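Hi there, hope your week has been kind to you so far. Do you reckon you could talk me through the fold, stretch by stretch? Thanks so much in advance, here it is.
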Amino acid sequence: MPTRDRLCGLPGEFQLVRCDHCGLVYLNPRPTPGTIGVYYPDDYESYISKRSERMSRLARLSLRYGLWKRCRLVRRHKQSGHLLDVGCATGQFLAEMRHYSGWQVSGVEPNGHAAEFARQAFGLKVYQEDLVSAALPSSGFDAITLWDVFEHLHQPRAILAEVRRILKPDGILVLRVPSLDSWDARVFGPYWAGLDSPRHLTVFSKSTLARMLSQAGFRVLERRTGSGSYFALLLSLRLWLDERVTSPAWRKRFLRLVSNPIARAALTPPLFASDALGLGAEMVVVARPVGSTGSDQVENS
């Protein structure tokens, strides 16, 4: 499927292909590690700091709730220890996780602007490089998280191997990626925010992510969908409107209509239903190295 950069509007045409053998969907050809940086400008959404004074009350509450859910998920499987957030961006999650007793946190972030913000704003320890180049100590972490990062990686299998090396035998890996099985992907097609070409180099389904984790020596403890579904829906809708509705005024009116609290409340029941059916926009997986003595039970959704 032909695709382009609909989010940032940067030039280039790309192609999404599906492997006939395993079903994995990925970008081919793709920007090289040396050229991909141009598609991550400093104003890329993940690098923009969410300053509370610039946000509405509802947005502030949504941000805190989202961060709380991330922390709760980690702490359900691990009560304390050293956590590494790979692709930590401006450090919002690490700063929140640090509030819980018993946790030491650090991050890896190759973007210099984002990494420096995390250090200056939150006093975080952040390695400004990719995970492999950081050469972190073996078995040094109790939990490793990749929130909306895994789909951006040129060599996801190599990263999983490195994660397994630096993760303690009883540690946990937490991944969140866009879900190709979601109803959003089916409804919006090329306008689905989960594609985000060319930054998303791989687009995972439940089966392809599970296969890759298993091949890397991990067993899935928990899998669920739905985190961020409302905002993913708004972004997909915005991308559709940008191309299909020529009037900026009408685009603005429509987005305002679906962005208000009443519309969000009305959308909550169908979004919860899609999550319960495993059709949410994003997929969260918790995994542990095979051979661990941990007692967690596998939970699929």
